[in-house]
Amino acid sequence: MKLVKDFPRSVENWDFNTTITVGTFDGVHIGHKQILQKVAEYASNNNEKSLVVTFDRHPISVLKPEVSPKLITTLDEKCSLFEELGIDITCVLSFNKQISELTSRHFIEKFLINSLKMRTLVAGYDHGFGKKNEDITISLQELAEALHFTLKVFEPVKHNGLIVKSSEIRLQISEGNMEIASEMLGVDYSISGKVIKGNNLGEKIGIPTANLEPESTEKIIPPRGVYAGWVELEGKRKQSVISIGSRPTFNIEYEAIEAHILDFTGNLYGKKIRIGFIKRLRDIFKFESQNELVNQINIDIKKAKEFTLP
Question: Using an 8 Å Cβ cutoff, are 83 and 37 in contact?
Answer without folding.
Answer: no
